[in-house]
Write a sequence for this structure.
């Protein structure tokens, strides 16, 4: 499919990100680089127990240490719970700790050493309580209760009981009847591990208050307005007295939308009357922040001999740990992903979120999609083998097409799953066959953004202001969380105004002045914010052309913008520099041109309403992986990785490739090495040696293929892409291991040990197929 | 006249400014309090000559000093001229110095001492040139030329020649014929001195650049966007790479809208690669920044016996010094003020701006109004005495009324000059008569904002965003330059939304993100920005009420906002907290309510066009002063001061009183003590002992009287007030001195020496009247 980028000058072309050189040269200034005079250093005291009552906290010895400016405990905060969406925790533990590493007290002092010394002098008396560490056990009626009040966290109709925080079930069609018609029924369980978001900059922030009490926090976050809301809750401060400046971010991958340390840092700064900097060390980062839920999925599928999928019964149980930071208002993502991008005659799927005394959990790239994706994509692969079909073939037979309805509701439009599979098949066809001994190929698919409008088009606004010299300020609250999204927004403005990308400046979001935004994430900024930015740029362009039309004595419709000039179409001699028109705006009306974009404008809202229930910009992708399995040691080596994704329209193909490659790296970690090992609530490997995030040397050559099936709502047809490019990688690796060694591994990561024992158990270390 | 404030809850009531407590407690953080690590200190080398050629500048010895980070000269800047409106100067002198104190080079070093040491090691070879110090002499064709290229600073039609930078003349009616009909012709000359703006915080700023080269400047300015424009010119930087954050300002009074030190500070920071702080000492502040022009006015008036004003011929010559920072595009203010707020059968008025080698000049409170005001208000007083009329009486007979046309164009509407005079008469009537010996009363009037629409309604925009908790961010680019204007804007928002003033937050303007603004000044922010803020607040309110109407199941028209609640009118039981509706907005549409106000919106612009040529919000005031004159020493003591001003509608009466009182203090300085004594281009008293700005102990009891004659365009009828509350004070003092001692002094300030010699010359130290 030819790219439509040839019609454009700037969008559709690879553009180097503005922050690339700074980051590569080590010159980038991250949030914690925000230096202030008299900056204090902070340290946090954490619980050694997975579950205990706090009998007393005595900070008197700590406060007496010279150089200590403030010591805080739960008593320094109002008695309110906080959280990103679900309010189930306090900043410092109050009366009870529920997981190892839970923050209990904190110190701000002249330097880290002094803060550390004071920390050791805080006397906390704990009364240890029995804990619960297995989510299935936690579901039993007489289990230890992690939260006494959990049932009150959600409305009663959610039927939350005991440690079951949240459960949801959807049935479509008559599942039992569908199973009756099946030629083959296949059932299996799948387990996925706890994964950390894997960013390179740990959580860190700087907080300071001015003499009037106005608090400013410089932090690396993707959601400054969300952090403001949470801080306001935590401190009992009006929102107007809290200001968040979202500094440069050294990776988010889902993990930086919530207050983890911000409440502590802010409270210390307020109490000390001086600015405070708090940085987590890797021990804390890996042992106490919000990680990906460990999950167990059970799938039972009924299929016909010809590979037609009939019935699916599925259940997934997430171990939420002690707190669930980022539970969305429903679990439809889990349920839709248990179904996969496939048609079934009937489905019966359920998802449960259960509290335990394990580490707290939250958003990590793809949220709960990779867990379900591993299950269904492994399951489909097994079924293909069982009915003797090619894995691409069976998927093509059942793949969703335009007009299909997802089990969670929403009618699909602009579905590219078929094209993704065709590109996958074409790639595999080009590979050398038969494969070498002990090597194998595996594929898996993923889907994302399959929620219907208008959910996918929530409010946002943007401004495009043309300076006197023709340079442009793009006003947006979108953060650059590391994905390159700001460059995409700059490209949209530059395209619409016919100027170079580097003439478009974007200030780091500041909650006091930037347009409100719900935070960069969910692969939705291009799709949801992009149109508003485009609207603002076009508004500015129209104003500019009206002005220039008067100067050039022609109709505005006859004018085009290119290379910083406004030209009369088909009359190359007649033109005016854009900056002259920009200056003219200021001298004639006293102010610069300001174009505005507001997603909820009436005419636009009417169009959105008309599309209600439609899934307009669903995103599909596939991973194709070649592995070698060492049958003596169980070691799996990924030899090659190919990844196909639909971008709708790739505004910045280099960015899209970056997102795909980053997703593959994340997916390979999930597949092979990343597992937070927790025993009785204690994380055993919370250090960056034993918790192994793939380094560049661990990553094979990645070949990305972008396809473009445009959406109706995205700018130039763009869709969201990036969040779940990791998801299909782990099942593809597992499927490739099966292809190479005939062993079906249903528990991630595929460590050498697991593969080795899998081969042993199977007793078929020389056979190639099941 | 009863105040209309009873219809309102928040506007029309005195509200304490948000920064009052911080400033009073010494806790306010001004721009130069912006502390950054590794901040360098800067010092500026200045010319000792009023006029000289720069033969060479050798910085090698200075650069060799340990601790010196950067030394700059004119060679470090592109060869472009800069200035606020008129581009007649460079940041550091290039080839030539034109006044004593002109900046020639600058140093940034680890501390001020090191910078000072380095400064002394910069070798500048000057070749002194003859200078010109008298503006009339400077007008002669063979005079020394201050600027070779001055004629190119303005378009040719302005007919600038030699050192005459700018001249303008207006005639209305047949002046010679009108003089023919006069019973009395009176002619006199008036001289006014150089005055400094008199703020308490000298110019200071901090500049720093990030590794990408983006420059940020924290400075106390009333016009951050103007500073950005100038810095962009000065450095040859795109505007999008320059960011100005307008920190708290310790007084502006007109003096902080231009780059004085910002270009130097920014260039040093860029060259040093570290942040730099530059603060002027008072010697520099008084000896090298832009001050009020010294002016000479000649007036010739023809009047009838009954006091009817017939003919006016007037001319004012301003000594611009070496550079004229803030010349506006025309001199209509000067010309209209020579006429005063009075009807004349015919006028012939002209104004001239002339370069000399005296200190450079620019905006100081009231710009060039106080100079003309002193002339015409002294002149009218003399005429009254000569025709034997009361000074109030003669003014009342000739005062402008609705429908009158100013000589510069523009038809007056909402004219309050008559009411101001009536309030003046009423006040005088209440005073004890006859006055004690050697004491006397004087009055004078002033007018302002008599320019016709749409000039007075230049583009501005505002946003009102309602946070989840019902607190509000007001988005505006207006700076708090010291007048309390931000409180007025907060009151407007609070009034419209029915919330407390302190729930409305305004961030300090930041050119990267704040709405564009042309800078606080000219008494126009309330009148020009206020309506846009009101529009934004009403837009937000309407959105809020629509939402609440659904919740309360009634028409939005039935709802009112008060005390943080939305209530159904006439149904007190039915209400919803405003914050619930605010939160509802976020949950229903995914984003907070954002109300926007844009002054150039089409429907509004049509209304503005319809009012073109109308002077909608003219502001009038009067000062009434009682003095005692010591006939032995010539010492003048101001015993009492009363000031009447029309606020249209006083949104914050406490603020209006503050503006009146501040204006009186400034006017008393102009009247009695403030004079920058310059001899052959050298300022002799540039220190805060010899240049005496009145302290609180110098100020008598001030009684302010606010009257309210509403404008059509200002919010709630408000007009601009503040800028020229100083203007009538000096002529009122001079008129009172005449009343007390019978001596007419036509040169300001009325120093003891001048009064003494005036009494001597008159030889009538015992007479009470002329």
């Amino acid at each position: 499919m030819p790219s439509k980028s040839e019609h454009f000058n700037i969008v559709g072309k690879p553009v180097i990100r503005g922050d690339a050189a700074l980051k590569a040269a080590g010159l980038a200034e991250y949030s914690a680089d925000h230096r202030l005079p008299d900056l204090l250093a902070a340290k946090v005291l954490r619980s050694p127990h997975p579950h205990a009552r706090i009998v007393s906290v005595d900070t008197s010895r700590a406060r007496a240490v010279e150089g200590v400016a403030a010591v805080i405990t739960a008593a320094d905060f109002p008695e309110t719970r906080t959280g990103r969406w679900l309010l189930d925790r306090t900043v410092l533990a109050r009366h009870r700790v529920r997981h190892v590493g839970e923050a209990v007290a904190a110190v701000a002092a002249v330097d880290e050493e002094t803060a550390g010394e004071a920390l050791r002098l805080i006397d906390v008396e704990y009364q240890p309580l029995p804990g619960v560490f297995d989510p299935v056990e936690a579901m039993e009626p007489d289990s230890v209760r992690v939260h006494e009040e959990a049932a009150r966290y959600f409305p009663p109709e959610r039927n939350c009981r005991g440690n079951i925080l949240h459960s949801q079930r959807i049935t479509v069609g008559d599942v039992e009847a569908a199973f009756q018609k099946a030629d083959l029924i296949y059932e299996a369980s799948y387990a996925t591990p706890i994964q950390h978001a894997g960013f390179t900059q740990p959580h860190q922030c700087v907080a300071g208050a001015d003499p009037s009490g106005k608090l400013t926090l410089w932090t690396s976050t993707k959601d400054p307005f969300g952090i403001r809301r949470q801080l306001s809750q935590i401190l009992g401060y009006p929102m107007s007295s809290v200001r968040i400046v979202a500094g440069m971010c050294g990776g988010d991958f889902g993990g930086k939308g919530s207050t983890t340390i911000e409440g502590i840092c802010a409270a210390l700064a307020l109490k000390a009357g001086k600015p405070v900097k708090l940085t987590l060390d890797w021990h804390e980062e890996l042992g106490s922040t919000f990680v990906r839920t460990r999950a167990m999925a059970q799938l039972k599928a009924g299929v016909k001999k010809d590979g037609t999928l009939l019935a699916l019964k599925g259940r997934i149980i997430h171990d939420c740990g002690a707190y669930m930071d980022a539970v969305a208002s429903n679990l439809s993502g889990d349920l839709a992903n248990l179904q996969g991008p496939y048609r079934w005659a009937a489905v019966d799927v359920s998802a449960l979120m259960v509290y335990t005394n394990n580490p707290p959990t939250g958003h990590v790239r793809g949220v709960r999609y990779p867990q379900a994706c591993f299950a269904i994509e492994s399951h489909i692969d097994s079924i293909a083998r069982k009915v003797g079909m090619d894995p691409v073939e069976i998927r093509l037979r059942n793949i969703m097409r335009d007009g299909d309805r997802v089990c969670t509701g929403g009618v699909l439009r602009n579905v590219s799953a078929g094209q993704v599979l065709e590109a996958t098949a074409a790639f595999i066809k080009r590979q050398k066959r038969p494969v070498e001994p002990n090597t194998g190929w595996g594929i898996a698919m993923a889907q994302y953004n399959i929620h219907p409008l208008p959910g996918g088009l929530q409010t946002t606004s943007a401004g495009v202001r043309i300076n006197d010299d023709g340079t442009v300020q793009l006003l947006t609250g979108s953060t650059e969380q590391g994905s390159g999204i700001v460059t995409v927004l700059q490209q949209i403005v530059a395209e619409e105004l016919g100027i170079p990308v580097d003439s478009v400046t974007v200030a780091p979001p500041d909650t006091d002045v930037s347009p409100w935004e719900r935070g960069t994430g969910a692969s939705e900024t291009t799709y949801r914010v992009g149109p508003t930015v485009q609207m603002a740029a076009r508004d500015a362009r129209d104003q500019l052309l009206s002005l220039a039309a008067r100067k050039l004595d022609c109709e505005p419709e006859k004018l085009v913008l290119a290379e910083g000039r406004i030209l009369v179409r088909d009359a190359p001699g007649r033109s005016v520099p854009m900056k002259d028109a920009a200056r003219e705006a200021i001298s004639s009306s006293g102010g610069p041109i300001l174009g505005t974009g507001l997603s909820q404008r009436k005419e636009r809202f009417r169009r959105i309403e008309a599309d209600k229930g439609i899934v307009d910009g669903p995103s599909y992708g596939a991973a194709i992986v070649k592995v070698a399995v060492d049958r003596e040691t169980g070691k799996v080596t990924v030899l090659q990785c190919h990844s196909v994704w639909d971008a709708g329209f790739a505004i910045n193909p280099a960015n899209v490739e970056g997102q795909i490659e980053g997703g593959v790296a994340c997916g390979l970690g999930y597949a092979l090495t990343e597992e937070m090992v927790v025993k009785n609530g204690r994380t055993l490997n919370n250090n960056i040696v034993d918790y192994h995030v793939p380094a560049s040397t661990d990553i094979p050559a990645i070949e990305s293929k972008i396809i473009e099936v445009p959406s109706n709502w995205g700018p130039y047809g763009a869709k969201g892409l990036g969040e779940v490019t990791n998801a299909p990688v782990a099942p593809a690796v597992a499927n490739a291991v099966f292809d190479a060694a005939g062993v079906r591994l249903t528990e991630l990561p595929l460590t050498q040990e697991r593969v080795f024992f899998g081969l042993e158990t199977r007793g078929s270390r020389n056979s190639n197929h099941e």
Observations:
- The longest helix of chain B spans residues 525-552.
